[in-house]
Amino acid sequence: MGPKVYHFLFLKDNGNVIEEIKLMIEHICEVFRSPITGITIVEESLIDWIIKFQPTIRYVWINDDVVNSVGTLDRIFENLNVTNHFRLKSIGNEPIMTDPIPFPSISIYNFYWFDLPSILNGTNAIIRLYRSILTTIDINTILKEWQLGYYLYNLEYLEIETFTFLERYDFILEVLKNLDWTPNFGNEGRPTTV
Fold this sequence. Notes:
This is Sdz-33 F-box domain-containing protein. The protein is of the alpha/beta class. Helix content is 31%, strand content 19%. It has helices at residues 17-32, 45-53, 70-79, 116-120, 136-148, 168-175; strands at 38-41, 56-62, 81-88, 105-109, 126-132, 157-162.
């Protein structure tokens, strides 16, 4: 891919694939004297391993049902430095997190484990929330605070996928209520207004 080369490692599952992945990655990093760029975490033991092996990493993708406690999320947020993008798929059912997610770009699926302050108090540049349970009032609050600049001052891109029983027009009116917004019918580059 031009001047960059990306390698992906896939191993056949012979019953001990997680341990083989760890050993193979350690060996490859030693031979090429290069850190890994990203990791897809498919099992909780990989979380502790990556924190010890390489606590600063560009991309982390955590698959479904790997994280099943607030303690695990706290451990990730406190000990892992994700420099580019963090993706978290669905997780178990425990209390709601109120702490912000400390990574520059995040994609969160099934956003029911986090509340509104966890978004508002974040320093994220890119936020993608899929299958969110945020209400129209929550989304309106996010947009207002972003527009005012008191919260979300680093935010460059926001995407929220949510489901509602409201008609589309009513939904849009509630989300944009009391906002200073400009309709845009084309792509004119990076938006400067809501």
